[in-house]
Design brief:
The chain has 414 residues and is of the alpha+beta class. 47% of the residues lie in helices and 15% in strands. The strands form three sheets. It has a four-stranded mixed beta sheet with strand order 1-4-5-8, with helices on one face. A four-stranded antiparallel beta sheet has the order 2-3-7-6, with no helix packed on it. A hairpin with a 2-residue loop joins strand 9 and strand 10 (289-290). Helix 6 (102-112) packs antiparallel against helix 8 and helix 10 (331-356) packs antiparallel against helix 11 (367-376). The protein binds flavin-adenine dinucleotide. Flavin-adenine dinucleotide binds next to strand 1, strand 3 and helix 12.
């Protein structure tokens, strides 16, 4: 495995960095001012999207685009360092049409949509004209186990009728969000992993009601993590995505690359937090010394560097694995980075907050928001524990204990 950035990737890194420094970073203040004043999407987002697309910095995340689809066709390994740069500003990835959950939804539609569904939904998503949401989690059941989902998708003539309640549905408050990919149950008598299906629900379908945008650690995300009611929602059967009963498998396929994109961006967010921590530690003096000369601050800086570099290499390995053996074969690496990287993200932010003093908890630095998002990522796309459980299962399966067989490394029997 060679993780050195190729010339092509170095050139793209420079291009994305210059784009960020020229067009995005100078607008951070304006973004906050407009969002705080209730203007969302912000006034300049479409102009920036057009500029990014003109520069060829568009849909960088999809390696297997068709000839007529816009994008760069980078591998996951090539995309990782670019997503890292985007991760430095919470809203930057949308400028490049690389933001979650649209990326995962585009991947899903790319793999499973019918020609009609592609035309109606995938095309405008790839063009950045609309936004979308993925609706699986429910308030009533432990949704880290997708077999618990209770939303019903019932056949009625040529239609499906959907009844249920979802929450924490990202993007649902985005005014351009026109599509909900809804996971529910079509057959309660099927084996537990074949009961689920996914249907495409246009946002304006009667019976779809966004109840509220749920705050996350008391922080309101303008794109929303919403609670949504589906009451007698009727869509044609042609809105089924994939086959009936394939919902669980589709969810697995969707979450693989999506998880790694979050991790790539988290590395960038942690890197920014470390940069700010280092600068602050040089700018402030306490007890006659610069902060970095005080032992624990220096340790915070060093530990953060070690953890970020470890995490980056691990993410690159997972990206390499997806490119070379496929997401299915790379599932242990994907689970490992998903269980690791959000904790690195929050740990580095936490240390940076401490080094900043009280200011670290204020909205005057990106640290509190970044910590909040890192913390949320320990749930989004499955909580840490579920990933740890899968990793442990794979480890245990790979090394079976054989009763009676001596282990030559031990000096006594087990
Ligand atoms: C900011 C944010 C955005 C989100 N966006 C979306 C979205 O767009 N669409 C969507 O459908 N969902 C979304 N989610 C929801 C997320 O996917 C769920 O929160 C997650 O899957 C966990 O489900 P749950 O909240 O029901 O927790 P539960 O399933 O009730 O789990 C609670 C806790 O039980 C423990 N636990 C669970 N399983 C195990 C296990 N196997 N071993 C040990 N302990 C375990 C863990 O501590 C876990 O945190 C989002 C969440 C957040 C915070």
């Amino acid at each position: 495995m060679d993780f050195a950035y190729s010339q092509k990737v170095e050139a793209l890194r420079k291009q994305v960095r210059v784009f960020m420094d020229t067009h995005i970073v100078p607008r951070i203040r304006q973004w906050h001012e407009e969002v705080n004043a209730g203007q969302y999407p912000v006034s300049f987002i479409e102009t920036l999207k057009e500029q990014a697309r003109e520069e060829g910095l568009w849909n960088l995340f999809l390696p297997h685009l068709r000839d007529d689809e816009p994008g760069t066709r980078l591998t996951n390994l090539e995309y990782a360092p670019l997503a890292e740069i985007m991760g430095r500003v919470s809203w930057a990835s949308e400028v490049f049409n690389c933001n979650a959950p649209d990326t995962g939804n585009m991947e899903l539609l790319h793999m499973f949509a019918t020609p009609g569904q592609r035309e109606q939904w995938l095309k405008p998503l790839l063009d950045g004209k609309i936004r979308s949401a993925f609706a699986m989690t429910e308030p009533a059941v432990a949704s880290s186990d997708a077999t618990n989902i209770t939303t019903s998708i019932r056949r009625d003539g040529d239609d499906y009728v959907i009844e249920g309640r979802k929450w924490f549905i990202t993007n649902a408050a985005h005014p351009n969000c026109e599509l909900f990919i809804v996971m529910g149950k079509t057959d309660l008598d099927a084996p537990s992993h074949r009961q689920q299906s996914m249907v495409l629900v246009p946002r304006n379908t009667p019976g779809v009601k966004v109840i509220r945008n749920v705050k996350v650690v008391n922080h309101v995300a303008p794109e929303g993590h919403c609670e949504i009611e589906f009451k007698g929602v009727r869509v044609p059967r042609s809105n089924l995505l994939g086959e009936e009963g394939a919902g669980f498998a589709l969810a697995q396929a969707r979450l693989g690359p999506g998880r790694i994109h979050h991790c790539m961006r988290s590395i960038g967010a942690a890197e920014l937090a470390l940069e700010l921590m280092v600068e602050r530690s040089q700018a402030r003096t306490a007890f006659g010394k610069k902060l970095h000369e005080l032992g624990s601050v220096a340790q915070s800086i060093a530990k953060s560097r070690i953890e970020i570099d470890q995490a980056r290499l691990f993410v690159l390995k997972a990206a390499w694995m997806i490119d070379n053996v496929g997401a299915k074969e790379a599932r242990k690496e994907i689970a490992m980075i998903k269980a690791l990287v959000p904790s690195v993200h929050t740990a580095v932010c936490e240390r940076a907050i401490q080094v900043f003093g009280a200011m670290g908890l204020s909205p005057d630095t990106p640290l509190a928001d970044s910590w909040t998002w890192g913390r949320a990522l320990r749930f989004a796309d499955g909580p840490d524990e579920v990933h740890l459980q899968s990793i442990a299962r794979m480890e245990i399966k790979a090394r079976q204990y054989e009763p009676g067989k001596e282990n030559p490394y031990l000096l006594a029997s087990m």
